[in-house]
Design a protein that fits this description.
- This protein is of the alpha/beta class.
- Helix content is about 45%, strand content about 15%.
- It has a single domain (about 5-290), classed as TIM Barrel (Alpha-Beta Barrel), CATH 3.20.20.220.
- It has ten helices and eight strands.
- The longest helix is centred in the last third of the chain and has 21 residues, at about 240-260.
- The two termini are about 25 Å apart.
- Bound molecules: flavin-adenine dinucleotide.
- Flavin-adenine dinucleotide binds next to strand 3, strand 4, helix 4, helix 5 and strand 6.
- Flavin-adenine dinucleotide binds near residues 128, 152, 155 and 164.
- Pathway: Amino-acid biosynthesis; L-methionine biosynthesis via de novo pathway; One-carbon metabolism; tetrahydrofolate interconversion.
């Protein structure tokens, strides 16, 4: 099933993102989260690839396993840092043989300890280059990419970033998924600017339920997402009360999602961090209201 055919404002789909665990405990957490969230019948799930391609074989294995064991459509994240052109073909063949139809094409974060992304010798510098390569290989994949309502952290200007996104979409993307954001105004403004720039593919909002104060501070520092002042004050007030923090995170994300759905988004992608309770509560609340 090609994800582009599931992205429909009149029947928006929920999707869940997971990462390949590194430990046995992490594996147990993932399996529990997968089981809980599979019960919500997501439109698709996706599996990230660690910075610098550090989990590349695990990513593909996990995608194949989810697809085979649950029947849920699973999308592999493939990064420029993890795949040189000469190695990528074998990965594409493996995915195609397993009937995986969807790939999220990314440049990838710099590996741990590095502040800037360095392409591999002979490798792809930008996600647009990898997108073009996959299209030219002609495997008939449905391809997604990343986009940034508040601008990518490295970009000198949002206009530059949008121009590069247009080139990336023109290289062959079928849809894009946004970086997390906590203020829907950034998303709506971004979609308007993207449409004006001639970017016409579905733009799926990415939502991360806040469950942990330090973690969210770290993520927002890394990806540059703004925490609105009122939410920041509320988080500060409950930072030492894990239950209250989780409730606040669920409440904020639910309100965000309700507004996004009421304004016709084609789907919502949840960054689950391999945990199910918050995402399950949000999706259940949204379904109960529809
Ligand atoms: P690109 O689209 O290549 O853009 C990177 C930067 O280069 C941007 O600033 C862009 O404006 C600029 N740029 C693009 N083209 C040009 C050009 N021709 N000339 C000059 N500048 C240019 N990271 C991982 O490591 N693994 C994952 O699994 C992963 N999953 C993600 C999923 C989603 C939905 C999102 C939103 C992000 C994800 N990331 C992941 C993070 C992502 O890899 C980083 O944000 C990375 O820094 C940029 O990746 P990109 O694909 O957007 O890059």
């Amino acid at each position: 099933m090609k994800i582009r055919n599931r992205l429909n404002p009149s029947d928006p789909c929920f999707s869940f993102e997971f990462f390949p665990p590194r430990t046995e405990e992490g594996e147990a957490n993932l399996l529990k989260a997968l089981e809980d969230l599979a019960a919500l019948q997501p439109g698709f799930v996706s599996v990230t690839e660690g910075a610098g391609g550090s989990t590349r074989s695990k990513t593909v294995e996990l995608v194949l396993r989810i697809k085979q064991e649950t029947g849920i459509e699973a999308m592999a994240h493939l990064t420029c840092g993890g795949h040189r052109p000469d190695e990528l073909r074998a990965v594409l063949e493996k995915l195609k043989d397993a009937k995986v139809d969807n790939i999220l094409v990314l440049r990838g974060d710099p590996p741990k300890g590095q502040t800037h992304f360095e392409p591999q010798p002979g490798g792809f510098r930008y996600a647009s280059e990898m997108t073009r390569f996959i299209r030219e290989e002609d495997f008939n994949f449905c391809l997604g990419g990343a986009c940034y309502p508040e601008g990518h952290v490295e970009t000198p200007s949002r206009d530059d970033d949008l121009r590069h996104l247009k080139a990336k979409v023109d290289a062959g993307l079928d849809f894009v998924v946004t970086q997390l954001f906590f203020d829907n105004a950034f998303y709506f403004d971004f979609v308007e600017r993207a449409r004006r720039a001639g970017i016409n593919v579905p733009i799926v909002p990415g939502i991360m339920p806040i469950t942990n104060y330090e973690q969210i501070q770290r993520f927002t520092r890394l990806c540059g997402a703004t925490v609105p002042m009122r939410l920041a004050l509320q988080l500060e007030r409950v930072k030492d009360q894990p239950e209250a923090m989780a409730q606040l995170g669920v409440a904020h994300a639910t309100v965000q999602c309700m507004e996004l759905l009421s304004r016709g988004v084609p789907g919502i992608h949840f960054y689950t961090l391999n945990k199910s309770p918050a995402t399950r509560m949000i999706v259940s609340a949204l379904r109960a209201r529809s």
